Amino acid sequence: MHFALKDYGADISWNVGSLFCHEASFFKMLNLCKTFSIPHPVKWVFGSLSTPMSGGRASPVLLEVDDAKSVLDSYLQEGIACRLTLSNPYVDRHMIQSDAINAELMKYLDSNQPDGKRNGIIVVSDILAKHVKETYPNLEVILSIIRPAYDTGYGKDKDTMDWYADKLQNPLYDVVVVNAAKLYEEGFMESLPYKNKVELLACHDCIRNCPYAKTHYEATLMFSQCLVNGISPERANSLLGDIIKTCVKNKKSHLNQTASYSIDEIRYLASLGYRQFKLSGRMNTEERFSRDLEAYLFNHEVLRYIETAMQ
After folding, report:
1. Which of 140, 180, 211, 239 could tie 174 with a disulfide, CB 3.0–4.6 Å?
2. Tens-digit pLDDT profile for the chain (311 aa)?
3. Pairwise CA distance, residues 162 & 291, whole Å
4. Taking a C-beta distance cutoff of 8 angstroms, is the pair 209, 183 a contact?
5. 8 in a domain, yes or no?
6. Structural domain of 286
7. Which of 92, 97, 80, 94 is nearest to 123 (CA)?
8. Is position 134 within any domain?
9. Residue 108, φ and ψ in degrees, nearest 5
10. 162: domain CATH number?
11. Residue 143: inside a domain
């Protein structure tokens, strides 16, 4: 383990939410690592353009296909795999057939794999998962953490061990993102099978098992789809504003129920055999994104020294 990197007691890999939104901060970090021969631990980046198949908490991103490919290339040339976040839960065959932009990008990623890694697609819809498996066989399919919000909700008797075991055994999915709050259910993470297929979100602004998660996803999806389809987002923006206010109030009353992991908690999960961790960032400011990169990937003192030396 390089002295500049955070030591988790095992070689873990990171999936970082910089694609199509935080390139400036990400490549500043990457260039710093190159200059001082620091082997960065980022294996994948994720994000999406604003299209009918995108969803979740993504900010509006509009690019021409060739420009999007150039962004993908900037990562692929560094050996970093790219994952497109196509997490609209209502994706159907018609939407797939009419989305020429993502069809072109999926084809491109399928044909341009970085050495030793695989590009992928993050999905909620089984229909899209099947399409990717059949049409783009070189791509990984990752089941989004959004899925249980729609199937069961989050909580002890909701997204259960059986629910995750079923998804982890499903050949449609190469990776399943598991609710980070399961760490706080006694014995859950210790007993969960197929740990090598699990990804865990290390930093998240929600409280554990947020009861408003689905409502938040729905409001964000409505807002982004209004922009994609040229419809006034006024009503969607109002709904989104209301749910954000509710979430802020809920977080203030559950300050000890953060959904973000401490460094020691990640070390414990790594000791159990979990190797894939995810850093969100697409809805964060550049400053917040950079701070999370530093906090989870690097030793602060070493990084501060390096940055000062470069000024």
Report:
1. 140
2. 788 899 999 999 999 999 999 999 999 889 988 988 988 889 999 999 988 898 755 566 889 999 999 999 999 999 999 999 999 999 999 999 999 999 999 999 999 999 889 999 999 999 999 999 999 999 999 999 999 999 999 999 999 999 999 999 999 999 999 999 999 999 999 999 999 999 999 987 778 898 888 888 888 888 888 877 778 878 877 887 887 788 778 777 766 777 789 999 999 999 999 999 999 876 677 888 888 888 899 987 766 666 665 55
3. 36
4. no
5. no
6. 13-310
7. 92
8. yes
9. -65, -45
10. 3.20.20
11. yes
* Amino acid sitting at position 205: D
Which strand (E) or helix (H) includes residue 43?
Answer: strand 42-47
How do beta strands 276-279 and 198-203 pair? parallel
Compute how many other C-beta atoms are within 10 angstroms of the C-beta atom of residue 216.
20
Amino acid at position 128, single letter: L
Token pair 């697409």 is at which residue?
A: 282
Q: For residues 168 and 85, what is the distance between their CA atoms, to the nearest angstrom?
A: 19
Rounded Cα–Cα distance for residues 189 and 83 (Å):
25
- Angle between the N-to-C axes of helices 65-76 and 23-35, in degrees from 0 to 180, rounded to the nearest 10: 20
Would you state the structure tokens that stand for residue 164, as one six-digit string? 């995750």
Question: For residue 63, is it within any domain?
Answer: yes
